[in-house]
Amino acid sequence: INRNKKSFVADLKDQVDQEKVKGILANADVMINNFRPGVMEKLGFGYEEVKKINPAIIYAEISGYGHEGPWRNRPGQDLLLQSVAGLTYLSGNRDESPTPMGVAVADIYAGTHLVQGILAALYQRNYSGLGIKISVSLLESLLDFEFEVLTSFYNDGHELPLRSLVNNAHAFVAAPYGIYETSDGFIALAMSSIKVLGQLLGCDRLTYYDDASQWFAKRDEIKLILSDHLITNTSRFWLDQLEPADIWCAEVLDYDGLVKKDGYKSLEMEQVVKTSGGIEIRTTRCPIRIDGELILSGIGAPSLGEHNHSLEKKFWIN
For the segment 129-148, what is each residue's pLDDT rounded down to a tens digit? Predict the structure, then answer.
């Protein structure tokens, strides 16, 4: 997370350290904080105070639940936000407990949205010469992440999303959409004609579902038939029937299986970073390409306060 960064440690309650931070802010393009609402103002680094130091600075903040309302002081932790935002009721089968995503999706999306706001602000500053405040909350980012499901909820009489009883993958998508067990693993099936699927898989029971309206209304019934059929052979066997016909399907891979595939290797997603302490870590690279070129940096995360001296010297901080 902190690769290719510099680390400056300061006690924001200490007057001497406050002056050092102000020296950096006076020369900064962007300032980011993720304290709870009101903390930065108490420390003397609210937007109005920082704007006096540097009128052109982009002041960016992330909170858990926003700066208004009764939830503003709640802890902004990813699992808690997933739970409050309704996200955990979208994964897993209908009769299963709420299921959180296995990555810090609230953190990641809020960070992404904050960057989008910062880039827009930097673009505007090219014309105005002035900075601006950008605010993002974990909750708002997750609600945006769920916009498709929430929009349906808003407009369908507040009808809750109904997950499949079996092989659920998306509450609003008809069969066969889901993940299915085979004799040696799992395969994923996206949108497809059930009748065509039955013909390709040699499953006569599926060919009777020739009315597309049935594929959602009877999705649990269809998925159970598919489950019973696909378990009888290997993932590779079924994919060999489906892939040549351009059916939307995929093998379900764990990381060990993924990194061995040529499709993964061709992306060159891995890189090695090295810290100043000599520690080498293999990690992922930036996913963005510019004019076809990969964005790479081998500089690892700094130790806390590693660059205090050099930054103080650079910004003439006494």
Answer: 999 999 999 999 999 999 99
Amino acid found at 94: R
On whether the CB atoms of residues 104 and 77 are closer than 8 A, the answer is no
The 10 Å Cβ neighbour count of residue 282 is 8
Instruction: At 64, list the tokens.
Output: 């858990």
Contact call for residues 219 and 155 (beta carbons, < 8 A): no
Q: What is the DSSP string of 185-209?
A: SEEEE-S--HHHHHHHHT-GGGGG-
Q: What is the pTM (predicted TM-score) of this model?
A: 0.92
Query: How many CA atoms does the CB half-sphere of 1 hold within 13 Å?
Result: 4
Amino acid at site 254 = D
CA distance 105 to 266: 26
Determine the pLDDT at residue 318: 64
Residue 54's Cβ-side half-sphere holds a number of Cα atoms within 13 Å equal to: 22
Q: Which residues contact 204 (CB under 8 A, 6 or more apart)?
A: 198
